[in-house]
TrEMBL record:
It comes from the Bacteria. It comes from Metabacillus bambusae. Pfam families: GNVR (PF13807), Wzz (PF02706). Residues 140-194 form the Tyrosine-protein kinase G-rich domain. Its main location: membrane. It is found in: Cell membrane. The chain crosses the membrane at residues 20-40, 174-195. This is Capsular biosynthesis protein. Keywords: Cell membrane, Membrane, Transmembrane, Transmembrane helix. The lineage of its organism: Bacteria, Bacillati, Bacillota, Bacilli, Bacillales. The keyword Hydrolase does not apply. It is a multi-pass membrane protein. Belongs to the CpsC/CapA family. Residues 3-93 form the Polysaccharide chain length determinant N-terminal domain.
Length: 249
């Protein structure tokens, strides 16, 4: 017999397991908040910008071909910036206790399309250290690129500075808790439907028809007695018990 599930049954299941869904969502949200606030280390980011452009005097004309050359060099520069040739010197200057590979993981080098500006972003647990490392990378690259490429076309456009009240870029507790809430609700709904699917007990006449495929001919309803009727029934039972004891004596 083919089973069909109506929207009414789905809503009935959700209403029946609503407390379970809320508990699972609350646990997921609270766990995410505790982990974000207490166990994850805040990470700060600071960035500096360098300009790839040959310095010119006032008499020199604008050269489109030279701009295209600078744009083509940017991809090469992005690789050189994160190379041990630059990072090893930065580690030595800043007295960092890490390898060039570990420092490489903390650096992001990017540039907009057809832009001669390169952005160097550094992440660190200490906001001041992040700014110092970013500035050290920029100055070291500006010095070393003339030796590596034999080209002097890099200038520092913006230095990394520490703001008055730096805020970490990660973790983001509010976002994490919002995601955990959504995931918790989805998990709660899934558990609710799973429990309902595994529950094969018969609770209504409809369940009998679905399980046996037979029509229900009759049903015994539950009589809800109010307080007055309950008192009368209790009194009648007491009188009958008293009469029975009298007859027996």
């Amino acid at each position: 017999m083919e089973e069909t599930i109506s929207l009414k049954e789905l809503f009935r299941t959700l209403k029946k397991r609503l407390s379970l869904i809320i508990i699972i969502a609350a646990i997921a949200t609270a766990t995410s908040g505790l982990v974000s606030y207490l166990f994850l280390t805040p990470i700060y980011q600071s960035s500096t910008q360098i300009l790839v452009n040959q310095s010119k005097s006032d008499q020199q004309a604008f050269n489109v071909g030279e701009v295209q050359t600078n744009l083509q060099l940017i991809n090469t520069y992005n690789v050189i910036i994160k190379s041990p040739a630059i990072l090893d010197k930065v580690i030595e200057q800043e007295k960092l206790e890490m390898t060039s590979g570990a420092l490489n993981e903390l650096i992001t080098v990017s540039s907009e399309q057809n832009s001669q500006v390169v952005n160097i972003a550094v992440q660190n647990e200490d906001p001041q250290k992040a700014a110092d490392i970013a500035n050290s990378i920029a100055t070291t690259f500006q010095t070393e690129i003339t030796k590596i490429m034999k080209i002097d076309n890099v200038s520092i456009l913006t230095q990394a500075e520490l703001g008055e009240d730096p805020s970490p870029i990660k973790p983001k507790p509010v976002l994490n808790m919002a995601i955990a809430l959504v995931v918790g609700l989805m998990a709660g709904v899934g558990v609710a439907f799973l429990l309902e699917y595994l529950d094969n007990t018969i609770k209504s006449e409809q369940d009998i028809e679905n399980q046996l495929g037979l029509p229900v001919l009759g049903a015994i309803t539950t009589i809800n007695m109010d307080d007055e009727l309950k008192e009368q029934a209790a009194g009648n039972q007491t009188m009958l018990r008293t009469r029975g004891e009298s007859v027996g004596s």
